[in-house]
């Protein structure tokens, strides 16, 4: 059974500047052998607010919103404005349908069974693996290990590769902006192996100091663990260059791609990553599934992580032999339905095109940053966007003398706006920035500039309200 | 050693103020203590209890009449011993007040108002040992027992809404016997909830954690005092809601075990 990439033909508005026209419904569907996708999109005058309205096209956000049922609800009496995508993304109905179809139609344990349902489940599960491999341009499917999420994937590398390869005095290089999931497993492993963790600080633009990172790489550096896109600073790191530097000294690089895979084109060949991790739930897929990409020669040499069924070859009472990767690292019954759901999410994203998503989100990122900058006494963390410096479509920020939790509480309660407040699993980064917590608004391709406008208006009102009590 | 407890307790400022919320609250000056109220009544005792935390020269200004409930004024005994049932009375006042505010925004406004009335907290007391664990905002709490063995609380937070909650909790429990402090359940104060609709205890429900910390520390001090007196049995603190563990695990792993074939 072949997976089919779904294509969205471009949608043209007949007259974007006709505010009193009634909503017209435009329907399109892609013809594909294994699944169909259709979207009915109301055409409305709000397209006039979009920057590309001059071309007569609806924004990607307006085009895709109808596919996400969860976005069309009210919370606390206001329309939901969901701006917490860096925490988790929403799922299109195509993914929900894939999950439903699996559980209703062919749920069965994989790899072992001989009967029809099991064969079908196995095919779809392995097809999902292939879709992930193609999505990030891995050489082969066997380089993709399904895990519960990116955190488990990093732990897999730490306990499997790390324990058997790190010696006392070896160095693991990270930045202060890493997510806790990229830091803590290496702390645990460093305690056991005697390896040393070194952290690179930020420069004056609030981006990890890349030159300092380069200088810190030495013969002792066995591993560099870095984010591709920061979930707080919205900054990008030059993974390709860092990989070259670390390979020159015989080390390896682990890329935390949680905030990049859902939003931009990620090509592991181009990056030359040794390890790369991501989570399904941040890329429109279900929770409970993520993956580790690792080069096949590295993976083949790694000892097992979790032991149990499925990852073995032969089991005796006093010893066992182990399967080849990726099975070696997939003990027990996997999250089969969820992997298939992830495959459906990848189909959906491929149908739009990751470059298109990236371009749209760059526009949103700039709009969000500029709009947020108009709030008095606001402090946005990370670099200023410019021609040379791109930001992801998220802003972590603080408003002077206002606690971010108070902001988030009132934005939710009074305006239905969902943002996050806290340390965003980056306590070392917040400590470095000298704050206890920050608020964060993060967008995805199904958000629109209208969402940003709603957020800014609500934020402005909330700040005035809170300041009135001072 | 908490030196700030030796200074006069800064009472809540008079309710009459310049801010827009004036219309929500009556002028405090109407409630001057005159008559004694029976114990366990639903009426509020408005006297400032004399102890080393209060300034005897100033008029009492404990909160917080609700517009819908009329209070008789009362005279408190000056011996500053906690009256049994005082926390219960105050709890009823709080629940009544917040329960009458049906709009969540009005509850927020009331909390923010109370936040402004929390007595200033010493900068020097904003230390790790005073932190309340498990909160998304920062909360500092100081607890001491006065000469009568009643719990005295001072607290602060970097979040205004949390300060509002703290302000209510301090008013509710300040000067009460540790046993009465321990008897308050978070469910009793559900009516104060703002925003969070979930029932599961979490870090987000900061004030649950603050209440639990107040109870735990008050009981710990009380038990310590009783151990010294060696007279009364210890009181077991209530089961605490989800609290972040203070200590990280050391890097020790359990020894691997070889199982023999039998």
Automatic annotation (TrEMBL), chain A:
Reaction(s) catalysed by this chain's protein: (sulfur carrier)-H + L-cysteine = (sulfur carrier)-SH + L-alanine
One Gene Ontology molecular-function label: cysteine desulfurase activity
Entry EC number(s): 2.8.1.7
Keyword Transferase: yes
Cofactor(s) it depends on: pyridoxal 5'-phosphate
Domain Aminotransferase class V: 81-455
Protein name, UniProt field: cysteine desulfurase
From TrEMBL, chain B:
Domain Fe-S metabolism associated: from-to ranges: 96-216
Superkingdom, natural source: Eukaryota
Region Disordered: start-end pairs: 1-25
PANTHER family tied to this protein: SUFE-LIKE PROTEIN 2, CHLOROPLASTIC, SULFUR ACCEPTOR PROTEIN CSDE
Family the entry assigns: Belongs to the SufE family.
Protein name in the entry: Fe-S metabolism associated domain-containing protein
Organism: Linum tenue
């Amino acid at each position: 059974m072949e997976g089919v990439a779904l294509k969205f033909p471009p949608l043209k508005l007949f007259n974007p500047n006709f505010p009193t026209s009634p909503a017209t419904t435009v329907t399109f569907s892609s013809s594909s052998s294994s699944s169909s996708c259709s979207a009915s999109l109301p055409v409305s005058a709000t397209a006039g607010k979009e920057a590309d309205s001059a071309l007569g096209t609806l924004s990607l956000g307006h085009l895709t919103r109808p596919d996400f049922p969860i976005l069309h609800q009210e919370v606390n009496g206001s329309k939901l404005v969901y701006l917490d995508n860096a925490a988790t993304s929403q799922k299109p109905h195509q993914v929900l349908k894939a999950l439903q179809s699996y559980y209703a139609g062919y749920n069965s344990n994989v790899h072992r069974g001989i009967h029809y349902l099991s064969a079908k489940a196995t095919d779809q599960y392995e097809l999902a693996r292939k879709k992930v491999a193609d999505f990030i341009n891995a050489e082969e499917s066997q380089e993709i290990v399904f895990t519960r999420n990116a955190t488990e994937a990093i732990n897999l590398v730490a306990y499997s590769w790390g324990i058997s390869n790190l010696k006392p005095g070896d160095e693991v290089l990270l930045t202060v902006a890493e997510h806790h999931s990229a830091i803590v497993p290496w702390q645990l492993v460093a305690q056991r192996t005697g390896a040393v963790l070194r952290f690179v600080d930020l420069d004056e633009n609030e981006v990890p100091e890349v030159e300092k990172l380069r200088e810190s790489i030495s013969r002792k550096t066995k591993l560099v663990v870095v984010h591709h896109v920061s979930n707080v600073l919205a900054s990008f790191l030059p993974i390709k260059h860092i990989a070259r530097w670390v390979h020159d000294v015989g080390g390896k690089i682990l890329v935390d791609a949680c905030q990049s895979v859902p939003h931009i084109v990620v090509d592991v060949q181009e990056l030359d990553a040794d390890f790369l991790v991501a989570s399904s739930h941040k890329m429109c897929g279900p929770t409970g599934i993520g993956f580790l990409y690792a080069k096949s020669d590295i993976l083949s040499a790694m000892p097992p992580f979790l032991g149990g069924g499925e990852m073995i070859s032969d089991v005796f009472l006093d010893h066992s032999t182990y399967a080849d990767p990726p099975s070696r690292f997939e003990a027990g019954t996997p999250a089969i339905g969820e992997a298939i759901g992830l495959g459906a999410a990848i189909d959906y994203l491929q149908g739009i095109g990751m470059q298109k998503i990236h371009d749209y989100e760059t526009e949103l990122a700039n709009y969000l940053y500029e709009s947020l900058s108009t709030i008095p006494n606001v402090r946005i963390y990370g670099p200023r966007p410019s021609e040379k410096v791109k930001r992801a479509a998220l802003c972590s920020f603080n408003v002077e003398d206002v606690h971010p939790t108070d902001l988030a509480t009132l934005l939710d309660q009074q305006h239905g706006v969902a943002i996050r407040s806290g340390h965003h699993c980056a306590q070392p980064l917040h400590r470095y920035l000298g704050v206890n917590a920050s608020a964060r608004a993060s967008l995805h391709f199904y958000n629109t500039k209208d969402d940003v406008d709603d957020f800014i208006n609500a934020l402005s009102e909330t700040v005035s309200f809170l300041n009135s009590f001072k | 050693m908490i030196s700030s407890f030796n200074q006069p307790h800064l009472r809540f400022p008079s309710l009459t103020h310049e801010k827009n919320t004036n219309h929500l609250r009556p002028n405090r000056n109407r409630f001057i203590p005159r008559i004694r109220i029976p114990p366990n009544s639903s009426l509020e005792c408005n006297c400032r209890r004399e102890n080393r935390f209060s300034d005897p020269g100033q008029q009492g200004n404990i909160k917080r009449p609700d517009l819908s409930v009329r209070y008789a004024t009362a005279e408190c005994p000056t011996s500053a011993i906690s009256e049994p049932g005082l926390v219960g009375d105050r709890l009823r006042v709080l629940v009544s007040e917040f329960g009458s505010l049906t709009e969540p925004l009005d509850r927020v406004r009331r909390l923010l108002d109370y936040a402004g009335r929390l007595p200033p907290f010493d900068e020097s007391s904003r230390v790790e040992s005073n932190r309340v664990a498990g909160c998304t905002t920062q909360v500092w709490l100081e607890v001491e027992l006065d000469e009568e063995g009643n719990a005295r609380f001072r607290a602060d937070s970097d979040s205004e809404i949390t300060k509002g909650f703290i302000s209510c909790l301090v008013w509710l429990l300040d000067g009460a016997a540790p046993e009465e402090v321990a008897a308050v359940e978070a469910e009793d104060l559900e009516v104060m909830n703002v925003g969070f609709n979930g029932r599961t205890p979490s870090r987000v429900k900061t004030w649950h954690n603050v209440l639990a910390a107040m109870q735990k520390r008050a009981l710990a001090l009380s038990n310590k005092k009783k151990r010294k007196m060696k007279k009364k049995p210890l009181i077991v603190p209530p089961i605490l809601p989800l609290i972040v563990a203070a200590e990280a695990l050391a890097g020790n792993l359990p020894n691997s075990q070889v199982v023999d074939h039998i």
